[in-house]
Amino acid sequence: MARDMVNSKRRDTRLVHAGSHPEMHRGVMNPPVFRGSTVLFPTLDAMEKASAEPLEGVYYGRHGTPTSFALEEAVAELESADNAISVSSGLAAITVGLISFLGTGDHILIADTVYGPTRALCDRLLTRYGISVTYFDPLIGEAISNLFTPETKLVFTESPGSLTFEVQDIPAITEVAHEHGALVLLDNTWSGGLYFAPFDHGVDISIQAATKYIGGHADIMLGTLSMRDTHYQHVKSTAVRMGYCAAPDVCYLALRGLRTLPVRLARHEKNGLALAEWFAARPEIVQVLHPARPDCPGHEIWQRDFTGASGLFGIILRDGIAREQLADMLDGMSYFGMGYSWGGFESLMIPTSPGEYRTATKWTETGQALRVHAGQESLDDLIDDLERGFRRLNGT
Ligand SMILES: *Cc1c(COP(=O)(O)O)cnc(C)c1O
Fold first, then answer.
1. For residues 319 and 121, what is the distance between their CA atoms, to the nearest angstrom?
2. What are the tens digits of pLDDT across the range 84-133?
């Protein structure tokens, strides 16, 4: 067998084979789970040589194992990056990405709709080290240029935004940022790395909570950073210095999940679009926040820059629904679970409070917002479940 299909121009084919090296494991197709801290060097020569380049190859458990290397190879393939780095969670990846490029006195620009814990990391931790933070309207586009100061080192984006799904003009933002000598980091979790190509749109570092769609089975915590060669050594040494690494069993599960990412995401997309359509026709709903729908802020940008939609979106209930009505609905759902995270096979629905997590923009909606994750169940069952849920909510 000539294993050169990894060079296929078609990404679905490359994703099936990327990072796969059966010839290194007696032909066994998947990589073994290399559990290891100690790596033995056969001679003093070999040890000294390895110590001179500790980020090359297998050196010490924290620096990576053949299992994490296989996953990183596949993630780099997924996002068309030169390199990827795996760490213990999505938030750890965000931390490494930020810390790699910041020091006391620096200023960063962050999208107002960023994932809540990213905001907490910046406001509660980075500011303690003399880093100043300015939040920007996710729909700002090239007008972001007005927010740069000589100290601005980095722009942190997340598109679409958490909870409210505004789509950002990443090419416009990266162009302005690069003119100011600043880097752009993107939290690319929503697209699974599959529906948005970060490096074609000027992004410098793409981050994913692999906990979500790459893992895909709600059973791991993992983060990844993808980048061009230029930044790899620097970011990798930051991760190693901070002591961040991903467990080999988790890397194995993520690689297994990644093999089926395109088929899973297609199903999440299909169910998500159908549910969004269904919600939009309900009298209890005043707005559906789904990037693929024309009334979602930034929809034209989604249409221009993305090649698909994942299964995560928002809805806003009409005014005047009491907490007990909401509880009657949510407590009795058969298939929509209530819990944090998303990207697994199951459907989820949780109340959210977008107003609590923004400072640069105002959240003026008065109805209760909910975040919906469309899982892989049969659409008919999901809709039946929701119909029964709205009956409980309405007391009918
Ligand atoms: C979940 C999530 C994260 C954090 O990932 P963890 O693995 O839970 O640390 C970061 N960004 C986004 C957009 C997320 O949804």
1. 33
2. 999 999 999 999 999 999 999 999 999 999 999 999 999 999 999 999 99
